[in-house]
Design brief:
The complex is a heterodimer of chains A (255) and B (297). Chain A is mainly alpha-helical and 255 residues long. Chain A is built from ten helices and no strands. Helix content of chain B is 79%, strand content 0%. Classes of the chains: A mainly alpha (255), B mainly alpha (297).
């Protein structure tokens, strides 16, 4: 789908942007730390790679994210499905889940600091919380959004309860689960960066935040670029394909 | 493709809205039930009661757990203690000051960014080659939006009001811009050509095809941006200012005042639910009903 004109336009845009940035950094009457040139950011990249800081921090952040994603998949999805099975339970759980998913994990961070102290456990707890609630909530919504008609149709044909869950409820809920995962991880990634800033263990959030105190602006910009690129890669190559696949395969294109 | 599918969270808002409606249909069938105004009011009261009951159960369980001393008072204060602190803060005014500070920043972010983002989004969306080039750029800044800008904002603007507002405005701008762009770009060309064939001018195409066609995506973008913005705001307030709900709870944690923290968390949650229920959901429902592509049936 990538047209060569578009690719050429990106190249021009990128080159122009970098050139304008370099010129601005060289000519604007501001202190160096205000706007370091692109070359400084590149130098920071080389420096942090050579010292091994960047790989360590990227690994730390990604490992925390992976923990949260796995927890959400292994715990969140089944819990959401179970809660959604019964209408009464779902009606009861819906407002609570809606409340807890709308309070971000970062808002719980102060309480978690009291519970777990300044450390890894607090960060992991805050990120897990942030990811899991949208997942549970959307799994529940997914189950409830399966049209009654399909359940009844299978039941009329004599299907067992397990058959109904396997062939109707689960596939019907999958698009919603995929959307929940994507939203939860998008919130979670930001919560992770914020938690790393506030708690101050290692990680990308900590890297850019601590760089600020020393006016290492090039390092901040590098960290931001890494944060943005990592998320884009995750989104384009993992989350979005999964979501599109489930929606086109099982989505309820009701007519 | 669903409008706005490119943003983080993608079509969730729309999907969730659809799911919510079907959920109600599935659960009770009441939304479709005919009835006058009185019936509607009764229905709403019933729904409110059903929504409040789980919270009553939760608070009761929490009170029982505290009374039984299952967890230390320092870790989880009793509901009565939290209510007491909330009452004290409400009486001495500090709660309202912090609420107003947070909501004020949210409002400034919305007022500054939404019109700018929608305007620019439509303008760029009109030029398809340009839109194709800028979409990934907007996507990148979208992925980056929020708290990751804070260190740079503090470097440029210092600690305080300006940095926090910058974070808000930035988060809201890129999400709305991106969704507007995608919305305008994904309006089926056939509608545009139909208007052209019938002698419509560019102005007609913009005002009667592209903007209405992009509306559901724009509103989805606005809703998501406010969700992301609100979260970014709480985090930014913890770091960069000395007012607002984020500061209130983070500062309280330095003194291990868990009752204040829990009261603050509850306030944050309630404020969001109110915004969502009273502003965002009606807005979204209205646009999707009015302009959404529900034409397949």
């Amino acid at each position: 789908m990538l047209r060569w004109e578009t690719a050429a336009a990106w190249t021009v845009l990128l080159a122009g942007g970098l050139a304008a940035w370099s010129v601005a950094a060289a000519t604007l009457p501001v202190p160096d730390y205000f706007l370091p040139p692109p070359s400084a950011v590149l130098a920071a990249l080389g420096d942090l790679l050579a010292k091994g800081i960047l790989p360590t921090y990227v690994t730390a952040s990604l490992a925390r994210m992976l923990t949260a994603a796995l927890t959400a998949l292994v715990v969140g999805v089944p819990v959401g499905l179970l809660l959604g099975m019964s209408r009464r339970v779902a009606d009861f759980a819906y407002p609570l889940l809606n409340f807890f998913q709308s309070v971000s994990g970062i808002a719980w961070l102060p309480l978690m600091l009291v519970w777990f102290g300044f450390g890894e456990r607090t960060i992991v707890a805050a990120v897990n919380y942030t990811v899991i609630f949208p997942v549970v909530f959307n799994a529940l919504l997914g189950v409830r959004s399966v049209p009654r008609l399909y359940v009844d149709a299978l039941r009329t044909l004599g299907a067992s309860r397990w058959r109904i869950i396997r062939d109707v409820v689960l596939p019907g809920a999958l698009p919603s689960i995929a959307t929940g995962m994507r939203l939860g991880l998008a919130y979670g990634w930001r919560a992770l960066i914020a938690a790393e800033m506030l708690v101050g263990a290692h990680g990308l959030g900590f890297m850019i935040f601590s760089a600020q105190s020393f006016h290492l602006t090039a390092r901040i910009m590098l960290g931001m670029a890494v944060i943005g690129v990592l998320w884009l890669l995750l989104d384009y190559f993992v989350l979005r394909p999964v979501e599109q696949a489930t929606i086109s395969r099982w989505g309820l294109v009701q007519r | 493709m669903t409008p706005g599918a490119g943003a983080p969270g993608g079509p969730r808002a729309t999907a969730a809205a659809v799911a919510r409606d079907s959920r109600d249909g599935f659960a009770s069938g009441r939304l479709a039930a005919p009835g006058g105004r009185g019936a509607a009011v009764r229905r709403q009261a019933g729904m409110a009661a059903r929504g409040a009951a789980p919270f009553a159960v939760l608070v009761a369980a929490w009170a029982a757990a505290s009374a039984a001393r299952l967890v230390p008072e320092l870790f989880l204060p009793a509901p009565a203690a939290v209510a007491g602190v909330a009452w004290t803060m409400a009486v001495d005014g500090s709660l309202w000051v912090n609420i107003l500070a947070s909501l004020g920043r949210l409002l400034v972010g919305i007022v500054v960014s939404v019109p700018l983002a929608v305007g620019l989004g439509v303008l760029v969306g009109l030029n398809r080659p340009l839109a194709r080039v800028l979409e990934p750029v907007a996507g990148f800044f979208n992925a980056l939006s929020g708290i990751a800008w804070l260190p740079l904002a503090v470097t440029w603007l210092g600690l305080g009001w300006a940095s926090v507002t910058f974070i808000m405005a930035n988060t809201i701008f890129f999400l709305v811009f991106f969704n507007t762009l995608v919305g305008v770009r994904t309006v089926p060309r056939i509608f545009e050509q139909a208007v052209r064939t019938m002698g419509g001018r560019r102005r007609h195409v913009i005002l009667q095809v592209l903007v209405p066609g992009a509306m559901p995506s724009i509103v989805t973008g606005i809703r998501m941006s406010i969700g992301f913005g609100w979260r970014a705001l709480i985090a930014a307030e913890m770091i960069a200012t000395s007012t607002g709900l984020g500061f209130l709870i983070f500062n309280a944690s330095n003194f291990h005042q868990t009752d204040t923290i829990v009261a603050g968390i509850a306030t944050i949650g309630v404020l969001w639910l109110l915004t969502d229920r009273l502003v965002l959901q009606p807005l979204e429902r209205r646009t999707i009903e009015r302009w959404g592509l529900v034409s397949s049936s």
